[in-house]
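Here is a complete protein record:
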Amino acid sequence: MAGLNAIIVDEEFERRHWPNEEAIGKGVRLPWGDKSPTLRVVGVVGRVKINALSEQGGFVQAYLPFLQGPSHGMAVVMKTALAPEKLASTARQQVRALDPEQPIYDTRTLAEIRDNSISRQRLNLTLLGIFASAALALAVIGLYGVLGYAVAQRQREIGVRMALGAQRRDVLGLVVGHGMRLALLGVGIGLIGALALTRLMNSLLFEIRPFDPLTFVTVTVILPGVALFSCWLPALRAARVDPMEALRCE
């Protein structure tokens, strides 16, 4: 390395300042005043997300040797195949053996750091999932109730149809077709609304584009399936109508 005049930059730093050149060997002067030394780039590393997993772009990143830019604290990262709790205890003992007055604080695993960084998004998505599940349940109950009421209101009509020769499959197709038309209309309106609102949900998404084809296809398949299930019971009830009993009731 180039003594105390060395610096390691990230890929974004290289892309912005030397878009068509090799960064290694280039000189960099940081804004430390008029007497700031010229630092020599000795390496290029990948970009690191510092504040949140969802961050995109932002400031460029650079790394300096500790003797070149000392600070009051230091973060140490350890990789192990053992349980992190056991390694943390061993690391504390080793540090105390070297310097009993050296403070050790904020000991966390990478999993804990990750979970803390996405806790707000996870809470928002959990609440959103609960509300979406409740909305789906209400839609199923509502569709079942509407079709059940429609079957009761059209009982005489269904009896006349069956008396004139309509088969049970015809009645099933009549009721299910009516319910699926309502369901598909709702799915279409919902997809249009989802396309309009996904831009507003961009901050809740991580490595998922606002328009994710897999998500939209999955929802388009699942919702009609759930609607078909909610239509099936009223349709079976309608198919079991006794024509003579229906006409006698009227």
